[in-house]
Recover the amino acids of this structure.
């Protein structure tokens, strides 16, 4: 692995134009990754989902250098029925940026390298991302500007890809009293690649972020996504994760509630079948007074599937009046399905209200009986119950347009 | 000097030590010490081999380090692994032969060993440092066929039973401290309840660490044969010493078909002084095996003592329809630390488990509930209910919850709830308005918070535990 990494790293450096200083930095991250390798079961954070094993058994000859051949963007991929701005990544390279709905001087994308935005000491995958990304992009929303239409970030892979690993890195800077809605939309046509996505958000005072992640299309990729969100006073971050398509995916969200009255929401849905293995890990750090967080994660698990939820609420000793809530629920439909949860509380302040709950089990037989006695057959009854179970999470989405889009994508009925 | 001692004793009234001549094994951990222990206890050869096997395994094991409370490295070579009152070279036949100083010690602790003075009929096995000093009410129990004695005695008199069950729940290949115990355990209690017998009285063991630089490694083995019932109580104290002392016990419970074991602990080891100096490291392995159908094991614990408490009384629900229960109150004050909880491992069909855990932290203390609920593929129709609540007093302490929940069966249900909060101002106000001072008000509210667990304790223990809850929190309000 090490040899391949080093030669590919060299190729990446040669094909881009990084400064001397940047290269030294990148090399440091590379060495750190080589030292730690891919995380496996022995790592507490990866206890339920062994990435090392998954990569070993699914990806032959993992390599990292993609020649970045230009691709045509097929307009057919665009989401219908929702006016939106676009950023299109194909095989890890930006092919199209379209912000036609926005004022140019209020909303911009820069591709400059910014030392301060690097994330240190998080995990080896973020280190790998920092070492191998060939470009950094920073999206900036200026003061008092509300981005009019949602930004959809299309992340595509296709058969033209020449490496087995893609690293994507984006930074978002929301200045005070600004607001932004983004949707991550994955469409994969490649097989067995390791996709590593890292986003970093900085929310200034009174900023609002709505961050939706949709992984819908069936594919055989292994994915990891890490989002770090720093929230200043009175800012809000709403996150929603739809975890359906990839055969292996782990979504990680880290929220630092730094300013007073800031709040974070994380809602997620797993609806899995056919040997899928998904996880959501959140850590919400309450670092100041009067901060709030709410998390709701629901799973429906079919044949041979596994989902895991690791959620942590941390409350610093000065973060009095914290309100933290966390609930995870799972329905197991098959004897081969498995649900793992580790809802964790770490609390150092006394005047707080923190609670978590977790429940897992089968579909309620009484409810099925009730529906069948009213004329539905077993399949319909089951579908209706699952529909209601998942709808609950989708209803938490505060943006109506996007809520309806997600309902359509999932085929949920009201 | 004396004033200070008196003051300290007020804070922890069991903090005195008894001056008594002792026989000790040479300091340190090596094969010779293990042979010494085995020899002085006149153990059969198989047991010595078993101990040495555990010791060899220990040499390659590493101390676990994933726990929340960290502690300075323990020098295992600087400990005495065996300490016994000198008068014990030959075990006294009856209480009259017992060293009066020992009787005095237990009287001070409120554990009368004189049977005639007992009114409420609890049979007691008292363990002093490394050896069991006395077991009461033996005759009454023998009539019913119940064996209740020290484990050393059981090894001599009932070797078949010991050989069959020792290490069957906690094998010598277990984690570091359990294996250490297997290598050097000195004494403990042994209970065997024959088929169909309902034990007529509560059985109780009282542990006391007296000598300094001693680790206490007792081993308890309780076997409930088919259709039997036994309720067992455990209490412990230690003198106040400035250095930390290690206590690494193993407790194994085996319940056969239709049997039920109820195990209650009131742990009040010396917690260290208010600056966190001294105190016991309580690293105990407790595990129960519901081997038979319809068997039941229930753990109840009140943890108020020890500088560090690190234990997870667990149930392996192997038999179909078996039930595991865990009720716990853990209180930490000053600089105490606790990392405790349970494991419920569902293997058999229709198995049920229930976990109620109440944690209270005050002062500069740190408390963690860590638990595992694992429902395996074949454990059809099983269910678990977990509730863990924490109460915080002040913003210098911490309360943490780390549950692991694994469900691999689509016909089984797991429900887990946890809350963390402080005592509400309204409740305090209400109590104070009715004439209670703030400390009494807190005591009352805390007792209400713990009620669900306190109710599970046998009567005599419940009263004592209730008082203990009050004492442990003294000075933490305001």
């Amino acid at each position: 692995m090490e040899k391949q990494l080093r030669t590919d790293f060299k190729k990446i450096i040669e094909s881009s134009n990084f400064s001397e200083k940047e290269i030294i930095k990148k090399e440091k991250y590379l060495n750190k990754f080589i030292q730690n390798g891919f995380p496996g079961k022995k790592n507490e954070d990866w206890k339920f989902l062994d990435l090392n094993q998954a990569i070993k058994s699914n990806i032959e000859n993992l390599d990292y250098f993609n020649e970045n051949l230009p691709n045509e963007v097929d307009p057919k991929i665009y989401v219908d029925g929702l006016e939106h701005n676009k950023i299109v990544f194909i095989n890890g390279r930006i092919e199209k940026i379209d912000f036609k709905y926005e004022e140019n001087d209020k909303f911009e994308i820069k591709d400059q390298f910014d030392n301060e935005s690097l994330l240190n000491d998080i995990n080896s995958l973020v280190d790998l991302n920092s070492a191998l990304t060939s470009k950094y992009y920073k999206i900036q929303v200026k003061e008092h500007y509300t981005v009019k239409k949602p930004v959809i970030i299309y992340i595509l892979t296709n058969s033209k890809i020449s490496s087995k690993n893609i690293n994507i890195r984006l930074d978002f800077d929301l200045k005070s009293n600004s607001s932004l809605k983004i949707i991550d939309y994955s469409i994969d046509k490649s097989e067995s690649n390791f996709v590593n996505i890292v986003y970093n958000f900085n929310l200034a005072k009174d900023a609002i972020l709505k961050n939706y992640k949709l992984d819908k299309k069936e594919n055989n990729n292994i994915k990891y996504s890490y989002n770090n969100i720093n929230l200043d006073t009175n800012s809000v971050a709403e996150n929603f994760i739809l975890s359906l398509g990839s055969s292996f995916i782990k979504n990680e969200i880290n929220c630092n509630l730094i300013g007073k009255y800031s709040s974070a929401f994380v809602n997620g849905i797993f609806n899995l079948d056919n040997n899928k293995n998904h996880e959501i890990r959140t850590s919400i750090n309450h670092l100041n007074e009067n901060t709030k967080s709410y998390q709701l994660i629901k799973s429906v698990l079919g044949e041979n599937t596994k989902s895991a939820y690791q959620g942590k609420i941390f409350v610093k000793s000065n973060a009095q009046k914290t309100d933290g809530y966390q609930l995870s629920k799972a329905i197991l439909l098959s004897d081969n399905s498995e649900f793992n949860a580790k809802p964790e509380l770490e609390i150092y302040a006394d005047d707080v209200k923190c609670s978590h709950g977790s429940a897992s089990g089968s579909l309620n037989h009484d409810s099925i009986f009730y529906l069948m006695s009213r004329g539905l057959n077993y399949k319909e009854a089951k579908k209706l119950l699952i529909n209601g179970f998942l709808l609950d999470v989708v209803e938490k989405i505060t943006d109506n347009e996007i809520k309806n889009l997600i309902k359509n994508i999932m085929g949920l009925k009201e | 000097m004396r004033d200070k001692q008196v003051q300290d004793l007020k804070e922890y009234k069991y903090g005195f030590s008894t001056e008594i001549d002792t026989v000790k094994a040479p300091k340190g951990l090596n094969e010779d010490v293990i042979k010494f222990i085995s020899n002085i206890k006149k153990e059969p050869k198989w047991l010595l081999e078993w101990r040495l096997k555990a010791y060899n395994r220990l040499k390659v094991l590493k101390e676990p380090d994933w726990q929340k409370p960290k502690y300075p490295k323990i020098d295992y070579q600087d400990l005495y692994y065996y300490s016994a009152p000198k008068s014990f070279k030959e075990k006294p036949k009856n209480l009259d032969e017992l060293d009066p100083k020992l009787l005095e010690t237990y009287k001070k602790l409120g554990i009368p060993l004189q049977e005639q003075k007992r009114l409420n009929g609890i049979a007691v096995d008292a363990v002093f440092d490394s050896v069991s000093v006395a077991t009461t009410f033996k005759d009454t129990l023998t009539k019913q066929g119940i064996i209740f004695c020290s484990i050393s005695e059981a090894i001599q008199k009932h070797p078949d039973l010991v050989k069959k069950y020792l290490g069957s729940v906690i094998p010598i290949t277990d984690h570091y401290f359990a294996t250490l115990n297997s290598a050097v355990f000195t004494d403990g209690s042994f209970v065997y309840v024959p088929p169909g017998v309902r034990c007529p009285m509560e059985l109780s063991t009282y542990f006391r660490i007296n000598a300094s630089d001693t680790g206490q490694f007792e081993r308890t083995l309780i076997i409930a044969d088919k259709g039997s019932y036994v309720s067992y109580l455990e209490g412990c104290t230690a003198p106040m010493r400035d250095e930390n002392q290690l206590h690494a016990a193993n407790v194994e419970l085996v319940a056969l078909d239709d049997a039920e074991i109820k195990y209650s602990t009131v742990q009040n080891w010396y917690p260290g002084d208010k600056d966190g100096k001294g105190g016991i490291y309580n690293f105990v392995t407790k595990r129960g095996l519901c081997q038979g159908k319809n068997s039941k094991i229930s753990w109840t614990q009140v943890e108020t003592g020890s500088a560090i408490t690190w234990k997870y009384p667990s149930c392996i629900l192997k038999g179909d329809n078996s039930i595991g229960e865990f009720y716990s109150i853990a209180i930490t004050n000053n600089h105490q630390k606790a990392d405790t909880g349970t494991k419920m491992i569902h293997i058999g069909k229709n198995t049920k488990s229930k976990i109620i855990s109440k944690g209270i932290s005050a002062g500069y203390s740190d408390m963690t509930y860590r638990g595992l609920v694992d429902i395996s593929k074949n454990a059809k129709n099983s269910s678990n209910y977990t509730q863990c609540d924490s109460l915080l007093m002040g913003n210098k302490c911490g309360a943490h919850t780390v549950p692991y929940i694994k469900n691999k069966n689509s016909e089984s249900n797991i429900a887990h709830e946890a809350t963390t909060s402080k005592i509400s101002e309204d409740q305090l106000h209400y109590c104070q308005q009715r004439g209670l001072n703030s400390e009494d008000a807190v005591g009352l509210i805390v007792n209400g918070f713990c009620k669900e667990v306190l109710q599970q304790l046998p009567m005599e223990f419940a009263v004592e535990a209730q008082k203990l809850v009050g004492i442990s929190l003294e000075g933490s309000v305001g």
